[in-house]
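Hey, resending since the last one bounced:
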Amino acid sequence: MEAYLGDRPYQIFPQRDFGQGKQKMRLRRLNMDNSWCLQIGSINLVVDPWLKGYEVDYAAWFNKQWHKTPPTKTNDQSLEGKDSVLITQKYSDHYHRPTLKDLHPDVVFAPGTLREELNKLLPNASLNLFTNNADTFVIKGVTIKRLPVPFSFGPTYYSYLISTDKESILIANHGLTINDEIRTLFERKTIDVLLSPFNEYRLPAVFGGLVSPGLPALERLVLAVQPRKIISTHDEIKHGQGLIPALAKIKVFDQEMVDQLPWLRGRHLNIPDYNTVSI
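The structure tokens again:
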């Protein structure tokens, strides 16, 4: 089966195996930013699909961005049967309406603040909405838990722990603040994969401040949860126009630093394409 990167076809299903003999979780990028297809336990879960067009916040003059590398197409045959979607954040680069409308998933996990919009956009979908009183859902033996976040006056970014009794993945696509509650949660939990950004992305405080906390925060997270593998997500340097791209200050992680960082060496797994990887 072929997909296209620019004008070049490439095979999307060759697999690299890092499973070391245990039950294997499978991951595949759907774009080079934050969209993934995860196979864990008996479910296939599409995370934050943004596979066409732009993401616009409020208006194009404020923030309009689009992928530098063409994503997987919404009608790609590899997405057939992938009828469960996790929307991690309420923002348009995670909650991308045109893509969701094309995919029309049967089951959606999403922040409760999107209830009204999702009822209009996907009227036939089964909605599982995270709220302060409902932070955990179980589907076919797979637990999807939204992690607590400390109170903040700025934007709120959620992280998610997806697990079975044999494997787990932590999605922290805007980082995760480590406190006593989080330490306690992970004391006896083995994390197979951590998906988190390596880059630092900062805006003026009035527009959200530190959006992605960068390498020092990633190190604290890694030392706290001790994942087997660490994979970069939400680090694409996208095309953009408007106020927000003009104001953004980005510190891009240098891949050549991997072997110089003891907490990253041996754990870092680079996924630079749309091939499936077994963990």
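The two ends are 22 Å apart (CA to CA).

Sorry for the duplicate.
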